Amino acid sequence: MFRTMWTMGWIRRTHPPTAAPISFGEIIEGCRGWLRARQAAKRLEKELADYFKATDCWLVSSGKAALTLILRAMHSLRPEKGLVLIPAYTCYSVASAVVKAGLSVALGDIDPMSLDFDYSRLESRLTDQTLCLLVNHFLGKPADVDRALRLASSRGIWVVEDAAQAMGSIFQGKAAGSRADAGFFSLGRGKVICAVEGGIILIQNQDLAPAIQREYKALPAYGFRENLILLIKAIALACFLRPSLYWLPAHLPFLKLGQTEFSTRFGLRRMSGFQCGLMRNWRWKMAKLNRARLERVQRYLRLLSRLDGEAIYFPFKIGLEQRVEEQTPLLRFPLVVKDPKQQDLLYHQARRLGLGLSRLYPDSIDRIDQLKGKFKPDTCPAAHRLAKTLITLPTHPLISPADQRRIIRLIWNLAEKSGQL
Known about the structure:
Elements: H1 2-7, H2 24-35, H3 37-51, E1 56-60, H4 63-77, E2 83-87, H5 92-100, E3 104-108, H6 119-122, E4 130-136, H7 145-153, E5 158-162, E6 170-171, E7 174-175, E8 182-186, E9 199-203, H8 209-217, H9 224-240, H10 247-250, H11 273-278, H12 282-304, E10 312-313, E11 332-337, H13 340-353, H14 381-389, E12 390-394, H15 401-418
Parallel strand pairs: 2-3, 2-4, 4-5, 5-8
Antiparallel strand pairs: 1-9, 6-7, 8-9, 10-11, 11-12
Helix pairs in contact: 2-3, 2-9, 4-5, 4-8, 12-15, 13-15
């Protein structure tokens, strides 16, 4: 079998598109948390609320579970409203959480340069039925939350921050996830910090606290079997996330690594003691991982500065002259190419070399099969085009300077063929 894999070129140093490595020391802390689940959860809730200056904090089984609870709580307070306005290019899990909460998805197209909402068109998308406006800190880049709050507050619309990819990002002295009525983080595989799976709810609007607490109290806990599965997954991540071994899970199709699917068949649970234990030193680890990501972002910016043009461009600028605390440790580094053929070529060449480049989400939300027919044709052209032209480069700490130079050479070759160099 391994001879066949070697012949096919599978066995090689292979990078994941994004990674937050788990150590065996953290797994030991997870087991301790499993034995002291209540104390571990209370400690983590307090630490998170204090750090993010939140009114309250809740710990759940995933980022999409966190969003589902937030939306159910909001709907219970304003049951006459049923629309949730989200970016047209975002993770499919966001749309699935809206549907899971019993609400309807409304879409706002994106600005292709900021990858935030196209605010010139957003106001017209807000109606009397809009319950919530969800802003997305895309890949960790801070969204314009203040602008969203100004648009929404006068209309009685809640604002939620999707900070699933932005834990630890700071903008104008405030952390992502801590500016709006509510915010949430994800602790899933490939996020800023990994607890195998998990979600964090933070609120700044005290009116939401009783409603979220009611939803939270109704959630079941992880049982012994579920905790054991988490332990096994954590051990697998600790072993196989490293580039020397990642080729194996990357070529197992049943793991569906890198695939994005729309599904409302996900569980809603309270976070387990094992997951809370994995997060024992989360502040130190978050800072360490984000410093490593920022270093790689800065290196990409320097090496790719000549390519920032029409054929290949970096969609949002991060000034290197800014203070470190005002810079953005992107979860992945985005590049936009001229046409879909270039995206496809770059992706497949990088995959063959095990470099960890990714196409992110396969299409805009309006083109998800389960949601087709709910939107007018070509509702969000900018989001659809981005899906076909965006490529992301890995920024995680397992990427070495030599790996980054290999990635840059690959991109330069494409740029030369397109006539940009």
